[in-house]
Amino acid sequence: MTIAEGFWGAVKDTPLIRLHRASEATGCEILGKAEFMNPGGSVKDRAALGILQDAVERGVLTPGKPGTVVEGTAGNTGIGLALAANARGWKSVIVVPETQSREKLDFLRMIGADLRLVPAKPYADPGNYVHVSRRLAEELGGEAAGVLYANQFDNPANGRAHEQTTGLEIWQQTGGRVDAFTCACGTGGTLAGVARALKARNDKIRIVLADPEGSGLDAWVKTGTVKASAGSSVTEGIGQAARAPGNLQGAPIDESMTIPDTEALEQVFSLLIDEGISVGGSAGLNVAAAIRVARAMGPGHTVVTVLCDGGARYQSKLFNPAFLREKGLPTPPWLD
Predict the structure, then answer these.
(1) pLDDT tens readout for residues 144-167
(2) Would you say the pTM of this structure is higher than 0.85?
(3) Would you put residue 196 in left (φ > 0), alpha (ψ -120 to 50) or beta?
(4) Residue from 259, 254, 302 nearest 282 by CA
(5) DSSP H/E element including 209
């Protein structure tokens, strides 16, 4: 039996789950990395821990001494940062667009984060949550005062955390028998880090960026320019309409694709009712992309993706018939 030392010791070694229905439909092995089993409930725990470990190594934060972590986030990174900060005696100030799910906002309040809600603004607007959080960290005194601006989108510690843990775990868990990896991007840390880890061991592994509608990262991979696609998405924390985050720069990405919400939600609902696995919209999008890639590669291949977080964080949206109908999205029969 392995005993983990609190939050900081428990963020690792999530299982790979064989997705039976997707695997049978494609003749491939489609495996989902169960990141919702991290202590903070999402893949973002890894980025949060990596960023804070780096801050400790640089002397910005010291366990047991006063310190503050500031970040702008769609929610999950903020949850990971707040929990990890709690475990070391630091405060957390989390700036979130007010459009994010009620469940994530309530969770942040519950765990003691100083939650600052701001209107949802595009990245070019000074009121965008990323810019607000950066200014707030500066106003609080910056690193010289023991205030860390986590800067998850451009902080290389984010991608390194996934390169050293997530990617290595996938390689070890599959015994090196992996042909492709699919993943959506918010900060880009998961895709970039895992891609580097896998490509370093076998450069033939295909790395595929999965993008929601309304994001411009699919175009960026194909043309080098971020250009938002038509439509919009109900998924949270993934996609970028204005820029490619620093974490993605230089990442070894082979291809990309845009996945509509209807296709992503089909997988969210299928995983729940057919596999007994509750996930959020980004995980559904990832699985949909994995199925596309598996079909393109043909039977006999192994495709790995990420099950980013659990569905309970989206009850008021993805599992709310009124919300789904308002957006023109399918409602699963057991909720109708």
Answers:
(1) 999 999 999 999 999 999 999 999
(2) yes
(3) alpha
(4) 259
(5) strand 206-212
Among 12, 33, 44, 199, the one annotated catalytic: 44
Residue 300 is predicted with a pLDDT of 98
Q: Is the pLDDT of residue 268 over 90?
A: yes
**For helices 44-57 and 76-86, angle between their N-to-C axes, nearest 10 degrees:** 50
Measured over the CA atoms of residue 113, residue 115, residue 120 and residue 121, the dihedral's sign is negative
Q: Helix 102-110 to helix 76-86 angle, to the nearest 10 degrees? A: 10
Percent above pLDDT 70 for the chain? 100
Task: State the amino acid at position 274 in one-letter form.
Answer: D
191-229 pLDDT, tens digit per residue, is 999 999 999 999 999 999 999 999 999 999 999 999 999
Cα distance between residue 239 and residue 235, in whole Å: 9
> CA–CA separation, 216 vs 214, rounded Å?
7
Q: Are 271 and 278 in contact (CB under 8 A)?
A: yes
Kindly list the distances between the CA atom of residue 130 and the CA atoms of 74, 122, 263, in Å, as whole numbers in the listed order. 10, 10, 29
17-24, Cβ contacts within 8 angstroms, sequence gap of 24 or more = 17/275, 17/277, 17/307, 19/271, 19/275, 19/277, 19/287, 19/290, 20/274, 20/275, 21/270, 21/274, 21/275, 22/267, 22/287, 22/290, 22/291, 22/294
Whether 44 is catalytic is yes
Residue 176 has a pLDDT of 98
Q: Give the span between the Cα atoms of 42 and 186, in whole angstroms.
A: 13
DSSP labels for 106-153?
A: HHHHHTT-EEEEE----TTSTTSHHHHHHHHHHHTT-GGGTEEE--TT
Q: For 96, left (φ over 0), alpha (ψ -120 to 50), or beta?
A: beta
Position 260: which residue type? P
User: What local confidence, expressed as pLDDT, does residue 1 receive?
Assistant: 60
Q: Return the closest-CA partner of residue 207 out of 191, 189, 223, 222.
A: 191
Kindly report the number of other CB atoms within 10 A of residue 117's CB atom.
15
First-to-last alpha carbon distance for the chain, in angstroms, is 44
